[in-house]
Give the backbone structure.
Amino acid sequence: MFKLPELPYVFDALEPYIDARTMEIHYTGHHAAYVKNLNDTLKDYPELQDKSLTDLLCDLNALPEKIRTSVRNNAGGDYNHTFFWPLMTKNAVLGPLEKSAQGINKTFGSFEQFQKQFNDAAKSRFGSGWAWLVVNKQSNLEVTSTANQDCPISQGQEPILGLDVWEHAYYLKYQNKRVDYIQAWWHVVNWQQVEDNFRKVC
Ligand SMILES: [Fe+2]
């Protein structure tokens, strides 16, 4: 059965950019619920309980139709949040490192150009969802976004960086000002984790 992974820092570690109360509710409320709901969904499917989140999400069409949407939402929610937490740190440096920096510059022209595209993706995602930097099927870096808890790996893409733009990620502190949340979030991006994610794929 799936377990809630440990948060790699305490709830107030990312203050003032991400407040402690939001972090606590996001992790113990929202992320934990995805894990619980995924386990509930799979309770009558023992053959699926040993699979990894990646196995489940990479081939959604292979799942029984009755549970496909629930797995898509809840395995997606678990995967995306498990991926998201280590992408933030209180000891943030201010931009990409080494190989990922080269890749970003090559694809987007500059870090600032990349950041603008990513901000646009995060701002313009209607309703709930995520903004992503992925390595696409052609092995190129690309900025994308997904709705709800849809996951890039279900579309054959490898996520490198992701930002949760569900209201549950920011509403307590930033209310309706998603743009302010996006701007604040850049202060806590863990570029070492981005570098590690990039090196795993490229
Ligand atoms: Fe979230």
Q: What stands out?
A: The chain has a mean pLDDT of 97. The first helix runs from residue 20 to 41. The longest strand covers residues 129-135.
